[in-house]
Fold:
Amino acid sequence: MNKTKMSRYELRVQEAYEAQKKSGAPVYILGIETSCDETSAAVVRDGREVLSNVIASQADIHKRFGGVVPEVASRRHVENITLTIEQALAEADKKLEDISAIAVTYGPGLVGALLVGVAAAKAISLARGVPLIGVHHIAGHIYANRLVEEMDFPLIALVVSGGHTELVWMKEHGQFEILGETRDDAAGEAYDKVARALNLPYPGGPHIDRLAHEGEANVPLPRSWLEPDSYDFSFSGLKSAVLNTLHNAAQRGETIEPANLAASFQDSVTEVLVEKTIRAVRACQAKQVLLAGGVAANRGLRERLQARCDAEGIPLVIPPLSLCTDNAAMIAAAGYIKYQKGQFAALDLNGVPGLSLNENES
Structure:
């Protein structure tokens, strides 16, 4: 870009970026994540080393409603964002003057929640004259794995969360090709709905997982494979099958052991997720599999995928539980890749609730 045509802000950002590159000093990314109901800020050095990762959860607030209330989430983000950023900097023993760039989730997510994080990130970027980096939320989940182990391309990432279920092929850093995605209920959403039917607390995933390990998968439930060559997912029918099973049993005056139903449901979900992942690995000749997203914390899924990857001789990377849920360290890790490429956002960056993973340029 011609520097004579740059705004004062753009010129400061470019000069800061060039100075950092020339110095060879460590790159400190301040990550901000507010896509749903966690307010998180983190400081990550050189895209790999987590110096701090602060998460202010709202789970207890939304539990009474059985799900996230967008307006409530947004207000809580406003209350928490400044304190969360200050705590992340303090725990990392860094000041804003030490930060090389600001990486923030700008989609997908709840638009009101996204805007809180984006506004905070833009304010810091403008005040400090450092690059602003827009990060896709799912890219963040995928790059949480790089905080554990280096990526080996080409690879397949299985992303499983409350709102997303996707198989992603990556040929190199920052390039995402969605092979398959959910057509209706995401896996995590199905877990929450089945948990509600079993009178389990919200969020339902951890409770279903715990219960499943206490029962036997002896309740017949369908597997939704869709078309023979499809990598897409569909869990709405499975959820309905669970509800019908409970309803029919009640009409007959029978009782189904909740642990057995949970085990059967989880067996159906994990079988489809794992087998489609392995089929994608073979088709794409992947060197590595990454598991990502909130449902990556599910013990049944982790165990089953690990067993299948071991049998196939394909390395599997799974982030620790602290990096499975929404957090800012993963956003900083993904933002570092864009920082290295000089892919910065302008101050008109906005929250995009329906952002596609293929739109990886800010």
